[in-house]
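Researcher: We're teaching a course module on how sequence relates to structure. For the next exercise, students receive a sequence and then see the predicted structure as tokens, so they can try to spot secondary structure elements on their own. Here is the exercise chain.
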Amino acid sequence: MMKKYSGIFLKFLFIINIIYIILATIVYRRLDIRLTFVRLEIGVLIISLILSLATYIMKLEKGNSIVNVILGYIIIVPSLYVVRNNFGTYLFRSVWLIYILMVVVGIIYGVVLYVLNKKYKDEVKHLNELLEEKKKQE
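Model: And here is the predicted structure for the students to work with:
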């Protein structure tokens, strides 16, 4: 469990570091404001922990997959506050932009998950029917 979680965490840490470097560069170039490295790096660590936990919960095969996705998105919400705290109003004039993006991504992910879940159940049903036919033939 920890090996899988740490792998997810390291991937998110790498990706979030790159995104934060780009965002900090944008803030510096446009507004001529230098953001402290320690503050940004603590934010990166917190966001990586939150996102890796949410991803781990979303990928769990135990329980209902739709409930896992909803829990994952509830866990992601505090990371938005960390981003808002790190960059303040330098990048985000309004918090609603972040929320709208999160809702759109959540809807898309939910639809994809629903379609895949339905396809998986149909495939399992078809395979079970084939097994029953084979048992009847024997």
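Model: If you want an answer key for the exercise: The chain has a mean pLDDT of 83. The chain is about 90% helix and 0% strand.
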